[in-house]
Design goal:
- The mean pLDDT is 92.
- The longest helix has 60 residues.
- It contains two helices and no strands.
- The termini are far apart.
- The protein is an all-alpha fold and 76 residues long.
C-alpha cells in the first residue's frame, strides 16, 4: 500500500486507531517479555550464587567437624 503523504500514512486509511493500537500493544508485550526474562535471569543467578555459598559453608563445616573428631580420637 502506498501513501500520498506522511499524514495519510499515520491515518492508515481510516484504521489508524486499530493499527497503531495493535502496534503499541505488541511492542508493550515484547518489552514486558524482555524485562521479565532479564529479571528471572538475575534471580536465577542470585539463587545459584547463594546455593554455591551454602554448599561451601556446609563443606567447610563438615571438614572442620572431621578435623575436630580426628583430633579428639588421637588425643584420647
Amino acid at each position: 500500500m502506498q501513501f500520498d503523504s506522511l499524514q495519510a500514512f499515520f491515518a492508515m486509511g481510516g484504521y489508524a486507531l486499530y493499527v497503531w493500537l495493535s502496534f503499541g500493544v505488541s511492542l508493550l508485550a515484547l518489552v514486558w517479555v524482555v524485562a521479565d526474562s532479564a529479571s528471572a535471569h538475575k534471580k536465577l543467578l542470585r539463587n545459584a550464587r547463594e546455593e554455591q555459598a551454602r554448599q561451601s559453608r556446609i563443606a567447610a563445616a563438615r571438614k572442620a567437624q572431621t578435623v575436630q573428631s580426628e583430633s579428639e580420637q588421637t588425643g584420647s
